[in-house]
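Justification of resources, computational component.

The compute hours requested in this renewal are based largely on the per-chain cost of generating structure records like the one below. Each record pairs the submitted sequence with a full structure-token output. That output is archived, and it is also reused by downstream analysis tasks.
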Amino acid sequence: MVKYNCLNPIANVGLDLFTADYEKTENFQEADAVLVRSAKMHDMELPDNLKAVARAGAGVNNIPLDKCAEKGIVVFNTPGANANGVKELVIAGMLLAARDVVGGINWIQSEKENEDIAALAEKQKKNYAGTEIMGKTLGVIGLGAIGVRVANAAVNLGMSVMGYDPFLSVDGAWNLSSEVQHVKTTEEIFKSCDYITVHVPLLDDTREMINKDAISIMKDGVVVINMARDLLVCDDDMAAALEAGKVKAYVSDFPNTKSAKMKGAIVTPHLGASTEESEDNCAVMAVKEIRNFMENGNIINSVNYPSCELGVCTKAGRVTICHKNIPNMISSFTNAFAQANINIADMVDKSRGDYAYTILDIDAAATSDLVSKLEAIDGVVKVRVVK
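The structure output for this chain reads:
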């Protein structure tokens, strides 16, 4: 029986995919697997029996990835599951900034008791008319699952689109419209675009990437959209740019004590991935990842261990090993199996940074003595008998 714990509410459409071999527990310390959305795990004591954490969403800043890797806990996320929801909010953000829809709505509310509101509106509408986005240039920084969708949607709306991503995946390239101009530097986007949207993870080199230096080379009246991570934009620099009129509007999905007070900012309450469809998609994907890992030992969409698959085991047994990415590990494993007189029928080993993961299919059931010998090998983090 596999016990799982939910640190946040997870959509039932996902949880219903668990079979009778899985049992939900409210006790985090006894869980084999954990599903989480926004709960902060950095200060939590991770139990030794915990094997997997699945984040129902893309960002994993709330999970201690290194700490999990050190304990052999594989952390998953659900890239692309909420991409359409975020894409639609980005498009909405561009339209809100272009037409000053919010200003117009607020004016209507301020005059709602005025009996002459209809006639007055005809005089006031010019203050909120704005411009169209067709024919304007959009710069997309980060062409992952969300960025590609935003870029393609903008092309379909008649915009010229420039995209920047030095790590563009093969899948991303295949899915990206041929009409998107792929540029080699963010500076090209800063200098050329009427609208700029960022879709990158929060890393040391992306933190506050939209700052006074970046803003200084942008076009006057630019609109900046941030539906990715709060700290990608320097709030103080953005506030100053809005006040000076350099930036026409800042659209952010991250309210804080500074962004909420910015003149010219359109701030939404972290709605990007909060649609019913996105939450359902993330829940389904997270549960499928957990089940594939627990039942087959396969890793798909991990953020701290490498992707590693060997399908469904058709042999007598399967053993998985989380270990350090150091020399002689594979030879140590094969020696241990040879000493136990157990033949290795199939094997795959993948590495990622300081850690690696090995799946071994064997022609006889793994014994407790073999497991102990594997665990005793220097560099081994966790051994699990899947079958």
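The chain has 13 helices and 16 strands. The first strand starts at residue 2 and ends at 6.
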